[in-house]
Write a structure and sequence with these properties.
The complex is a heterodimer. Chain A is an all-beta fold. Chain A has no helices and eleven strands. In chain A, about 35% of the residues are buried. Chain B is mainly beta. Chain B is built from one helix and eleven strands; from the N terminus they run βββαββββββββ. In chain B, the strands form two sheets. In chain B, strands 2, 4, 5, 6, 9, 10 and 11 form a seven-stranded mixed β-sheet that branches. Chain B has a four-stranded antiparallel β-sheet with strand order 1-3-8-7. In chain B, β9 and β10 form a beta hairpin. The longest helix of chain B is centred in the first third of the chain and has 5 residues. Chain B is globular and about 40 Å long. The chains are: A mainly beta, B mainly beta. Chains A and B meet through β5 and β10 of A and β5, β9 and β10 of B.
Chain lengths: ~120, ~110
């Protein structure tokens, strides 16, 4: 079955960096899919962060993270990364890796990885 | 900038039906069927329920249905069950290529 497994979360001080990873599996032609990162602060709603097309060449970011976060994909594009720099307390959240679906939707979500930014 | 507004909470008794609204501020909701709905039970990741306004994702019971009228999309849960208690989110893919999330609605089964 489709799986998206995130890792790399943890506790970090404000101003520091962290890199999250996402490994998709269980479906063919992984390299042909686009993927998103979405986060959820404790007790809050969902917030879209970033998106990468299947070829990794086009990436879009939410204003809240543009310039601080960088989404990348390895070759042969089977692992996604979210490099998070200059972390702030309000970046504390569960971060989800999400597959871009074929029907203007987000069809599969990972289980999430918790990032806590605290001094 | 686009926005989607959902009621913070709705509730219903087992067996009843409830409807969650999702009202958009731009013509994207009116003109295109790019709204999807997600269920997030407590402590779990969101799961796709409905895509393109009214199509159920694979494995989703037919108690869940979606519709649209004007700039408002709606999710109806019929025959409420205790397991339906969760947060529900609507999401829109705009023609500008951005993703807009509703604020979420907490469904309580009384």
């Amino acid at each position: 079955q489709v799986q998206l497994v995130e890792s790399g979360g943890g506790v970090v001080q404000p101003g520091r960096s962290l890199r999250l990873s996402c490994v998709p599996s269980g479906f063919p032609f992984i390299a042909t899919y686009g993927f998103h990162w979405v986060r959820q602060a404790p007790g809050k709603g969902l917030e879209w962060l970033a998106f990468s097309w299947n070829d990794g060449s086009t990436v879009d970011y939410a204003d809240s993270v543009r310039g601080r976060f960088t989404l990348s994909r390895d070759n042969p594009k089977t692992t996604l990364y979210l490099q998070m720099n200059s972390l702030r307390v309000d970046d504390t959240a569960v971060y989800y890796c999400v597959r871009d679906g074929p029907h203007w939707d987000l069809d599969f979500w990972g289980q999430g990885t918790l990032v806590t930014v605290t001094s | 900038q686009s926005a989607l507004t959902q009621p913070p909470s709705v509730s219903g008794s087992p067996g009843q039906s409830v409807t969650i609204s999702c009202t958009g501020t731009t013509s994207d909701v009116v003109t295109y069927n790019r709204v999807s709905w997600y269920q997030q039970p407590p402590g779990t990741a969101p799961k796709l329920l409905i895509y393109e306004v009214s199509n159920r994702a694979s494995g989703v019971p037919d108690r869940f249905s979606g519709s649209k009228s004007g700039n408002t999309a709606s999710l109806t849960v019929s025959g409420l069950q205790a397991e339906d208690e969760a947060d529900y989110y609507c999401i829109l893919k705009t023609t500008a290529g951005t993703w807009v999330f509703g604020g979420g609605t907490k469904l309580t089964v009384l």
